[in-house]
Amino acid sequence: MVPHTYTLPDGRAFVVRHIRPDDKARLAAGHARLSEESVRRRFLASKPSLTRGDLRYLTEVDSVDHLAIVAVQASDPEALVAVARCIRLPERPDFAEWAIVVGDPLQGLGLGGHLARTLAEEAARVGIRGFTATLYGENQPTQALMRSITRDLHGGWAGPGVRELAGELRAAA
Ligand SMILES: CC(C)(COP(=O)(O)OP(=O)(O)OC[C@H]1O[C@@H](n2cnc3c(N)ncnc32)[C@H](O)[C@@H]1OP(=O)(O)O)[C@@H](O)C(=O)NCCC(=O)NCCS
């Protein structure tokens, strides 16, 4: 259930909530802090900054066909450090394409897993039964995340080095 507070084992706390239209500047600043490698893994391309159109699209969501969950530092709510989103597939509306990014200094600590589970629960609540993802084949953390929130994960190669995965949400069971 969002909003809520999530605390890492080291005590750092984050507010986890739905994205809002007034998050544009926070999202742009969070994007600017990402390493080139995290941007490349998230967007499968280089993307030095988000355009005004990107920011509108990424923050003005309806929470039914397009859901986005963010984590902001509890001690500094202007610091947006992670985003997980999913967008319903027009050709298969019970499935949604999902993507996630966690700020580099916070990766590997559990925040991505928590955000992924939260997004899956929110998606299941609006009738989404499965997630698909397009990712680099070497992206082990994302594949681990996807395995943890889905069952029957399957997929194939969508292009050189790029995999397309799909699975039913455990949260939708
Ligand atoms: C993918 C990403 C969101 C994961 O977030 P995170 O906070 O680092 O993830 P967590 O610490 O919750 O770990 C998630 C899983 O990945 C595994 N993992 C973490 N780092 C890993 C690594 N370097 N190699 C292999 N597995 C790893 C964890 O063990 C965990 O698996 P488990 O649930 O089976 O234990 C984050 O690494 C990221 O932002 N990467 C760049 C952007 C990206 O790749 N986005 C996905 C595109 S769709």
Give a concise summary.
By secondary structure, this protein is of the alpha+beta class.
Describe this protein's structure.
This protein has 173 residues and is an alpha+beta fold. The protein has a single domain (4-172), classed as 3-Layer(aba) Sandwich (Aminopeptidase). Helix content is 29%, strand content 37%. It has helices spanning 24-33, 36-43, 52-59, 111-125, 140-149; strands at 4-7, 13-18, 66-73, 80-89, 92-102, 130-136, 150-159, 162-169. Strands 1-2-3-4-5-6-8-7 form an eight-stranded mixed beta sheet, sandwiched between helices. Strand 1 and strand 2 (13-18) form a beta hairpin. Helix 1 (24-33) crosses helix 3 (52-59) and helix 4 (111-125) crosses helix 5. It is globular. The mean pLDDT is 97. The structure holds coenzyme A. Coenzyme A binds at residues 38, 41-42, 99-102, 107-113, 133, 135, 139-142, 144-145, 148.
Layout of strands and helices, then pairs:
Elements: E1 4-7, E2 13-18, H1 24-33, H2 36-43, H3 52-59, E3 66-73, E4 80-89, E5 92-102, H4 111-125, E6 130-136, H5 140-149, E7 150-159, E8 162-169
Parallel strand pairs: 5-6
Antiparallel strand pairs: 1-2, 2-3, 3-4, 4-5, 6-8, 7-8
Coenzyme A binds next to α2, β5, α4, β6 and α5.
